[in-house]
Amino acid sequence: MSLHLEATVADRDVDVSLDIADGEVVAILGPNGAGKSTVLAAIAGVLRPDAGRGVLGDDVLFDIGAGTWQPAYARGTALLAQDPLLFPHLDAVDNVAFGPRSAGRTRAQSRATAMTWLAEVDAAELARRKPSDLSGGQAQRIAVARALAAEPRLLLLDEPMAALDITVVPAMRQVLKRVLAGRSAIIVTHDVLDALLLADRVVVMEGGRIVEEGPTKEVLERPRSTFGAGIAGLNLMRGRSVGTAVCTASGSLVSGLSDESLPEDTDAVAVFSPSAVGVYVEPPAGSPRNVFASTIRELEPRGAQVRVRTDELSADVTLPVVAELDLVPGKQVFLVVKASEVTIYPA
């Protein structure tokens, strides 16, 4: 079912416009506090925006200006969060049967539907267990089955795997990949693998606004937002185009290569890998390169390499380089990257 959403929530500084196609799975990514969960809450009807309109298929979920507001139970959406929120006094099959029963089906019909969905999420053998007898991964499978048994027109998943043990997450992803096929769904996540494996399209939010959206592969290969670059493991510097370079707000000029013509003085980004960045303790001499003076913020061990993070950029160096240069947080360094390693494109 297609969705069109326009929503403003003033006290959370969220202002978004979002469209979901029928049968499309969209991942919303962004840092904590970006407004991702607020968007889901507005769609589900558990939060009333200050302004805006939401339309699911042909049904108006809300239109603040016109005074239209459908209650959450009448919207045809299902919201699945980190906490499974199973009814503790009901076993798994009756938890899943709750939706069909609420829709007026008989007890036998509801249980038959519940068993179908329990089998779909590989949890049929858990039918008679109470929530207190389930592991975290098992409880989340039951929650997914309960959400789907209600036959939602739009499934909303808010960090559904964030509370799970890391060992059960891959199996849960496979369950979601199977049950989401052909369904309209929105999944809020911090994990790039969720986007890669589950989503047709990615929306990136920062500061309560959508700053980037597009097909998952495109966003990860050519990010246009700071967060998008971060999850793709790339450095991104934003500014205005100057020939084949980008001039940042701080005055840094980043030279690079572009596979398309950039109009002069337009928004552009320079993107490059941390592995392309050299770290020096003295200003380097030699061929023309991009040089940025900075201060080390932290060092992150990554096997045989160490990621050196500054406030602006990241660089990957070997352990011997860390020891030789005595790299420690707070040290002033010069980060160097060849122009041939930098890709420049419109922002």
UniProtKB/TrEMBL annotation:
Gene Ontology biological process terms from the UniProt entry: molybdate ion transport
UniProt GO MF annotations: ATP binding; ATP hydrolysis activity
Cleavable signal peptide: none
UniProt xrefs under SUPFAM superfamilies: MOP-like (SSF50331), P-loop containing nucleoside triphosphate hydrolases (SSF52540)
Keywords: ATP-binding, Molybdenum, Nucleotide-binding, Transport
Domain named ABC transporter: residues: 3-232
Occurrences of domain Mop (ranges): 285-346
Name recorded for this polypeptide: ATP-binding cassette domain-containing protein
Origin species: Aeromicrobium ginsengisoli
Biological classification of the source: Bacteria, Bacillati, Actinomycetota, Actinomycetes, Propionibacteriales
